[in-house]
Design a protein that fits this description.
With 187 residues, this protein is of the alpha+beta class. Helices cover 17% and strands 22% of the residues. It has a six-stranded antiparallel β-sheet with strand order 1-2-3-6-5-4, sandwiched between helices.
Length: 187
């Protein structure tokens, strides 16, 4: 019997070799998303009419460009190549694990057009219908950018030596909440 080769259901396209941006790509990102709104998204029912297109706060992180994008259909962090350590050429539709100061986040690779050939994004929300306005969306993205660029808070260590330890044993059973006052029965 002849062995058959297993083939994946979906084969991603080859990764586009992205050129590094020497200066901030913010204007190109803004223009590209404005054209997507006008040409492809206009009138779709899931758009939030209180939101418009904003690309902002692009900064170099590990040599690449990280910034925020708000549109009537998405709120996301966006990564573009700057010749640094974060960017890896990844096929459109595939995920790229990007190690930021906060930790490793899965960015989704995508391709635009000649103005914005390749980018990766990290969606912050599944739907934007509940966002009140552009100011609220921008604040969400600015908080996410600040968080992504900060190392996680250090774990708290053991209690200081001068803190008295409890003299009674701790009940760790899952049913302790059923007991009156949280104390074991019979005490």
């Amino acid at each position: 019997m002849m062995e058959q080769l297993r083939r994946p259901a979906r084969t991603p396209p080859p990764a586009l070799h992205a050129q590094a941006w020497d200066t901030s790509p913010m204007a190109a990102v803004q223009q590209w998303f404005e054209s997507v709104l006008a040409e492809r998204m206009s009138g779709l029912p899931f758009l939030n009419p209180a939101l418009s297109v904003h690309a902002f706060d692009f900064r170099r992180v590990e040599g690449d460009w990280l910034g925020g994008v708000v549109t009537p259909w998405s709120v996301q962090l966006m990564l573009l190549p700057g010749g640094g350590e974060l960017w890896t050429d990844t096929p459109a539709g595939s995920r790229s694990l990007v190690t930021l100061p906060v930790g490793t986040l899965p960015f989704i690779a995508d391709e635009g057009d000649a103005r914005l050939p390749a980018f990766q994004y990290f969606p912050l929300l599944n739907t934007v219908t509940g966002i009140a306005d552009d100011q609220a969306a921008r604040a969400l993205v600015q908080d996410a950018l600040a968080t992504a660029c900060q190392p996680p808070a250090a774990a708290t260590g053991p209690a200081p030596a001068d803190t008295p330890a409890s003299s009674s044993p701790v009940d760790t059973s899952r049913r302790r909440f059923l007991r009156f006052g949280g104390t074991p029965a019979g005490r």
